[in-house]
């Protein structure tokens, strides 16, 4: 008998939760094949409200509450692990995941980043693209490894950099392409025979 239960998603957030909100909406359709079973944040943030409004359990695991980074990685892994996830989605999560976390969830973590990686990794991708005079930008969905935005790519979507763009306008254009890519690709991963892991 085929297992037809929805895949269990845990989403990691640090900010407004716009990608989380889109995932929660997509999961309302049984054909999507997944449901968000937990949302974990590294601080109190607006993204948690999206989860609470949808009746999804939330947890905050703040780095400042732990004596060392390694302890935080273990605590974060524990907070995620209680949900028995099939896939972990970093949706605006602004912390690197360490060895203790990634060893517990090998090839189970995806992240979306607002650049066409390997160009402009790190926390200021849009600002860096503008400063470099880039003519194109976009978003990359990738498997998370221990590096900074270095994991194997799953998908990319490109948008133009227009004359007069500033960080706000380019971020908005990227987000308008990034969110649909995230929703589509997570759906494809969970509906496949199993996530197409690297």
TrEMBL record:
Pathway(s) the chain acts in: Purine metabolism; IMP biosynthesis via de novo pathway; N(2)-formyl-N(1)-(5-phospho-D-ribosyl)glycinamide from N(1)-(5-phospho-D-ribosyl)glycinamide (10-formyl THF route): step 1/1
Residues noted as binding (6R)-10-formyltetrahydrofolate in the record, renumbered to the chain: 69, 94-97, 111
Entry's Gene Ontology BP terms: 'de novo' IMP biosynthetic process
GO MF, one example: phosphoribosylglycinamide formyltransferase activity
GO cellular component: cytosol
EC number(s) recorded for this UniProt protein: 2.1.2.2
Site residues, Raises pKa of active site His: 149
Occurrences of domain Formyl transferase N-terminal (ranges): 8-184
Cross-referenced InterPro entries: Formyl_transf_N, Formyl_transf_N_sf, GART, GART_AS
Family assignment from sequence similarity: Belongs to the GART family.
Classification via NCBIfam families: PurN (TIGR00639)
Protein name in UniProt: Phosphoribosylglycinamide formyltransferase
Gene that encodes it: purN
């Amino acid at each position: 008998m085929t297992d037809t239960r929805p895949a269990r998603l845990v989403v990691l957030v640090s900010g407004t939760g716009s990608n989380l909100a889109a995932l929660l909406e997509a999961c309302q359709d049984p054909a999507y094949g997944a449901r968000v079973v937990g949302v974990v944040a590294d601080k109190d943030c607006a993204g948690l409200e999206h989860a609470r409004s949808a009746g999804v359990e939330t947890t905050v695991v703040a780095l400042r509450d732990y004596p060392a980074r390694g302890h935080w990685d273990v605590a974060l892994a524990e907070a995620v692990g209680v949900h028995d996830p099939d896939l972990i989605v970093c949706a605006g999560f602004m912390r690197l995941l360490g060895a203790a976390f990634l060893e517990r969830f090998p090839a189970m973590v995806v992240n979306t980043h607002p650049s066409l990686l390997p160009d402009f990794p790190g926390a200021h991708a849009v600002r860096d693209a503008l400063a470099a005079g880039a003519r194109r930008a976009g978003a990359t969905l990738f498997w998370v490894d221990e590096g900074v935005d270095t994991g194997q790519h799953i998908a990319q979507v490109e948008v133009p950099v227009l004359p007069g763009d500033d960080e706000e306008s380019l971020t908005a254009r990227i987000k308008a392409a990034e969110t649909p890519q995230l929703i589509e690709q997570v759906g494809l991963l969970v509906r496949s025979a199993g996530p197409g892991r690297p």
